[in-house]
Automatic annotation (TrEMBL):
Full protein name: DUF4386 family protein
Species this chain originates from: Intrasporangium oryzae NRRL B-24470
Transmembrane segments: 32-52, 72-99, 111-134, 154-175, 187-205, 211-232
Record keywords: Membrane, Transmembrane, Transmembrane helix
Domain of life: Bacteria
Spans annotated as Disordered: 1-20
Record keyword Chloroplast present: no
Length: 244
């Protein structure tokens, strides 16, 4: 009995990772998450600018996509890349957010997951349908019926539309969590908040939508790029290890 206990203890000790291995793995994860957080808003803003201009009805959406099919296709895949990059970036950023920002950070992560999946990943599929429907080989009347169904069917459109607003709320809460936690530069958190607020405010002003995308996109890139760089160079604190 004593021999088997000793052997089990020895085997457990032999397979346990050393503090150096744990530190290296943590450093690698932080660098990857930080890099994703720098690149994701760039891809997100590029997709917003490349996407075809369209209204709220099938005819205007068809016209927008028919005239800009190639940029629309690029925008769809660049937007999907932003979704893929945002996921590890947000997880890495919100991991060290403890204390006063912890609860807000948890809510933010939940809203971001829904928003990224429904408003961005799923929306890529819709955009690919628009791309295919506006092909010269597809009958325009048939394409309009498909596009109108996608846009007006509550079962298909409502979850995607809700995802857009939920994602916006999630980004706002990320900025608030960063500011409240004090783990990163507060001004970077306020910059993320300003990106969301400017996007909403400009939407009510009589200005070109591209102006709003440029302003909010620049603020989003500045805020998240700063947080990503800080995350890559951050040393985990005792509270971070306990939180893990």
């Amino acid at each position: 009995m004593s021999h088997s206990t000793t052997d089990a203890t020895t085997a457990s000790t032999a397979t346990a990772p050393s503090p150096t291995d744990v530190a290296r793995a943590d450093s690698f994860r932080r660098r990857v998450a930080g890099c994703c957080l720098v690149l994701a808003p760039v891809a997100f803003s590029a997709a917003e600018l490349l996407a075809p201009e369209a209204g709220n009805d099938a005819a205007s959406v068809y016209a927008g996509w028919a005239g800009h099919r190639a940029p629309g296709l690029v925008a769809a895949f660049v937007g999907l890349a932003a979704t893929i990059l945002f996921l590890p970036g947000f997880f890495g950023l919100l991991g060290p957010v403890v204390g006063r920002g912890r609860r807000v950070g948890h809510i933010a992560m939940g809203t971001l997951l829904y928003g990224l999946v429904m408003a961005h990943a799923a929306l890529t599929g819709v955009n690919l349908v628009f791309y295919a429907a506006t092909s010269p080989s597809v009958d325009r009347a048939s394409a309009l019926r498909v596009m109108d169904s996608l846009m007006t069917d509550a079962g298909a459109a409502a979850p995607l539309l809700l995802g857009h607003y939920v994602f916006t709320l999630g980004v706002l809460l990320v900025g608030v969590a960063v500011v409240r936690s004090g783990q990163f530069s507060r001004w970077a958190g306020w910059t993320v908040v300003a990106a969301v607020v400017s996007d909403v405010v400009v939407g009510f002003l009589p200005v070109d939508g591209v102006v709003g995308d440029l302003v909010s996109g620049a603020l989003l890139v500045a805020g998240f790029a700063t947080l990503g760089v800080q995350l890559m160079g951050r040393r985990p604190a005792v509270g971070d290890r306990l939180a893990q």
